[in-house]
Amino acid sequence: MDSTRLLGEFLRARREVMTPAQAGLLDGGPRRTPGLRREEVAMLAHVSTDYYIRLEQGRERHPSERVLGALAQVFGLTPEATAHMHALAHPMLQPRRSPARRVSPALRTLIDGWPVTPALICDDLMNILAANSLADALYGGFEDRDNLLRMIFLDPAAREFYPEWEKSARSKVAHLRLVAGSQLDDPRLTELVGELSVKSPDFRRLWARHDVSPKVTEVKRMCHREVGELELTCEVFSVHGSDGLQLITLPARPGSPSEQALKLLGSLAAPVRG
Fold it and tell me: In sequence order, which ranges of 181-245 are alpha helices (DSSP H)?
């Protein structure tokens, strides 16, 4: 992936979702294209219009820290999105991560000991490396449970499983964009983005927005084919010393109908003892 081209795409995407009101400008009525005009961004960032156009077109390769800071302020970027923009503007040679395939026995024992909390171990590209029995039961309606992105974009079951599909899909793509900023030359990333782009128009649409966001604590709504609606709190923890592994837990609020549904799901998934 060409970082200079990606910087231009990022700036254009941020400009197109920014309204004049958000930028503190008077709204002059309907516009032929969405968002701010290039000359408006240039004026607000105190650079020439020609210079800003070169940035969007990938012809300006060395924007200064002052210019990047001004653009971050114009677009109201979060700290994570600002860091992503800096990484695209000034890419550093990152040590390439080897695929993280090994989950320690201690970590497997930990998640297997949670009878009412679904738990997954994923790598930085959301490949599922391990899951406890309740997580297996929770995602049992999906045909291929190897990657959370493939599940939500390529499996037909996702639309029914996630009542708030758009919200869940956008969150996952924004996290992948954050990862991509520091791993532009990773062939695993290129392969995953290429596959999803070819097979899913929705992924192409959301990827083109260049939203950037870390995984945060959020309540997820799900609809399981056997136990019905669930409200689970998604928590993500980095696994120390694992080169990118993350522990994802999906507990229900204690005493809630969702907790009772998880207990029922666990009993349905338990092996029958003779």
Answer: 187-199, 201-207
